[in-house]
Amino acid sequence: MVLKDLKQVTQLPRATAKRLPRYYRLFKRLVEENTERTSSKQISEIIGVDSATIRRDFSLFGELGRRGYGYDTKELRDFFGQLLGNETDTNIVLIGIGNLGRALLNYPFHKRNKIHITQAYDVAGNPLVGTRTESGIPIYNITDLKKNLTTTDIKTAILSVNTESAQEVAELLVDAGIKGILNFTPFRLSLPSDVTIQTIDLTKELQTLIFFMNHPASD
Predict the structure, then answer these.
(1) Which class is domain 2-83?
(2) Band of the pLDDT at 88, cuts 50, 70, 90?
(3) pTM (2 d.p.)
(4) Which long-range contacts link 2-11 to residues 24+ away (Cβ below 8 Å)?
């Protein structure tokens, strides 16, 4: 592999950045299956992205493959894993312990990578506040957020609160030093430009799914 300086490719197209976890999972699986090399055509057939797009994505990082050989699966697994930060532990705070929040607390992030929810928060009226999950994650009162986070290295949060509280809680997170928020509310957060926001609107995703079920896209 001949790689570009990764500092030069930090501004990736958003669509490319969203495909990176798919590439990582693919190469990880191929290595586990003892497949030593692959091609853009084979990758395309497995993940459903056309081979021209795959080659264009890969070219943003340099020469990831070799002409006549293809792509070394172990090299690419390690490369995309490093790019996604899978070699370092990432601790996350979860805000909002409703039905979705409880499901997220029990999701085994750590089995796929080194992501760990280490703290959770809700308002005092939630009976879970002051307790711990079965796996030992403490659930605190939201009023303790800044005090607790300033003594940790946590920079990432999952926001799973009601829409009406989303902006206020997000501002509390930023004030406590959070730099990245995975937003599970449909509310469009307005935060400083140095805070990265990724919004997942489950209702919108389901509506999009239903639309395409009723109106199949043509090739």
Answers:
(1) mainly alpha
(2) confident
(3) 0.74
(4) 2/62, 2/63, 3/61, 3/62, 3/63, 3/64, 3/79, 4/60, 4/61, 4/62, 6/61, 6/83, 9/60, 9/61
